[in-house]
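Lecture notes, unit on protein representations.

Consider one protein chain, 185 amino acids long.
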Amino acid sequence: MKMVEKHSVAGTVAALIRGNYVKVAFNRGDAGWGYMEKLCRELENERYYIDLFTGNKEVRGVIHLNYLGDDDKYCRHMDDLVKEQLEFFGLSDIVEFKRVAVVPSQIQEYGLPVHFETGKGYEIDALNEFNPKYRKLLSCFDWDIHNQLLKQNPAGVIDGLVGQKVKFLSEHSGKPKRPRIDTRF
């Protein structure tokens, strides 16, 4: 799962990782307790999945929560707050939180400008989605995990099974259903 600070970046991240079976959430720069309680309930649900071949309920290993946010005083504090909230809601044992952008090493590597209004900190918005280096950074996708999961369940099989389920639901509801990426929890 990816969590981004800003709604404006959520769509870009969702577009860059579309088709990789990764959810995107955004906290609007505020990891408030109410928001995190709702997100933690969603993460708890992600702990379990149904094996598409056997139909058995299985337990996942670690859930990776990668965070993309500004590099400023408030956002660096937010990392600690999110970790504290995961602990409070009992998920620190199954959720691995990691800030993947913006981190100090990326500021120089990508030539990010200082925030234009305050002159302090660096904005996640400064990453230009059309530059290949930035695109790679924004995707922040763990291909090793993805490839390991695809060995267990090839993408074509997964897409076929999902397509069958969506078609089945559409036929029984009287209305066509289209899969939708929900970027907000």
